[in-house]
Design goal:
Shape: elongated
Number of strands: 15
Helix content: 55-70%
Distance between the termini: 9 Å
Structural class: alpha+beta
Radius of gyration: 33 Å
Length: about 625
Amino acid sequence: MSHDQPQSGSEVPYLELLARGAAADAYERPVLVARADGATPETLAALETAKLHALRVRAELEGRRRREAELSALYETAHDLAGLRDLDAVLAAIVQRARSLLGTEVAYLSLNDPVAGDTYMRVTEGSVSARFQQLRLGMGEGLGGLVAQTARPYATESYFDDPRFQHTWTIDSGVRDEGLVAILGVPLTLGSQVIGVLFAADRRARVFEREQIALLGSFAAHAAVAIDTANLLAETRSALAELEKANEIIRDRSGVIERASDVHDRLTELVLRGGGVHDVASAVSEVLDGAVEFREAADGEPAGADGHAVRRGDDWVVSVSAGGELLGALVLRGHPALDPVDQRTLERAAMVTSLLLLARRSAGEAEQRVRGELLDDLLDAPDRDPRLLRERAARLRADLDAAHVVLAARIEAPREASVERESADRRRLWSAASHLAATGHGLAAARDGGTVLLLPLDSGDSAAALARRTAKHLGGALREPVTVGASGPVEAPAAHPGAVAGAYEEARRCVDALRLLGRCGEGAAAEDFGFLGLLLADSRDGRSGGAIEGFVRRTIGEVVAYDRRRGTDLVRTLDAYFACGMSPARTKDALHVHVNTVAQRLERIGRLLGADWQSPERALEVQLALRLHGLSSAVTR
């Protein structure tokens, strides 16, 4: 086993913890147990590295689950707005979902009363104090007053100890009666005007994270839209009631409302039939009698802030965003005079566009996961029912009764790359490979620090050619060298799922062979390696004593066994000796030991291998055995 690689099996306890969804503090136990058992520093270091990787995977899984829940709640809220009938019911749903997703004990929403000059509680969720539910606050007082004054979110982990806002007896009594400690407030805005505040609070000290603040801000935006829609409906009813006094106004607004209703119906139909963002732009163009286009997000390019339409010259621009992420913008060209209701129509079209983009992204990620799960089953569960495998593959437009090739791909990051860089590179590789698999009617999954693909092999094509094309495609997509090893053809994987795992091991050996031979960034199959390729493909037939193991055992087995028994470093010394041109002086520099130590080790090696081990014939065999031993050790890690 290589000196600077983690020991095999260090990741096993963390895979078990991930499988059962253990708490974060449970990930310290394997290291503590190993330290108590007197494990070597190398073993402890390997466990620490595996622990960090496992915690990152756990955090990623938790983040994905949280994000899915957030998107689902935002979609449900948008659905409620689309069918708005009861403003109270919609606001109550927003507050309830905000409390649930942020995991707080209390959530509430206050609205400004311009007539009384104060603000009052509109909706509460989780509150138990009648005094708190009936609070009316003077403008500029308390945390809510600070949010209303600055139109920015504020959070405090300890309300009574926070000097940033004005404390009053009325507010503090109500908060103390409710037992609140940590409070987060975000503004409800219409244009540049703050009309209220949405709050989430706990009865214990708590630090609100940036993602939670952004999520509450999204719910506040929905609440503002609901209030604005209700106000517009009220204005419409008032205008209709005063028909004789404002006949001209009614005619103008009737046309606007009709357009708004028309675009609402069109957008609803687009969502139901799975339309795209350009369909939305086309529908709004017809309703608003102008040219509307969707523009992808670009760094430094301005857009309508917070989902509100803003005028830029003769154009109107509104951002398309979700959860604080800018996805792009809708642009209405050459239409400087736009009615406020038409502005709202453009803004609602932007909201529908964001939902379609998120749905498309979620659908793509879901299909990638399904393809990965099917490939994982082929690799890990060879006893699966072939009929079920065929049905699952058919839903993904894959034919597992045709010949396929298993390919193992690894991205070649710089040696000094950070753990975060390596993790990001692996995600990029998996994403690019998943796209290639989807377009090529194959499967892809992240595995063993790289990516494995199962791609169909066309008639007249070869595994080696497919490996080279895949390496070139993935390397071009990522703009990084990607090394790809391919197995020989696997006939009908659905009928013989057990063959897929063996083919994957062969593909991995090809990847490691390419890397050992200094051919990173290339693609190859076992057939490209001549006699070495026969050794690489040897495990496919299931024999226990393969050619690699037999050759290594006959040639340097005594040295390997001696190192294992005595904990010595003879294999590494032998490897360095040949790498340094069989010069003891250069070898001692490479190993950072005294030249006498090198001489003593070489003498020991001579006694184990025989006096003629440095003859040209024997030396060649020993060097080949060392390389195969290194390759075998790398594959088993």
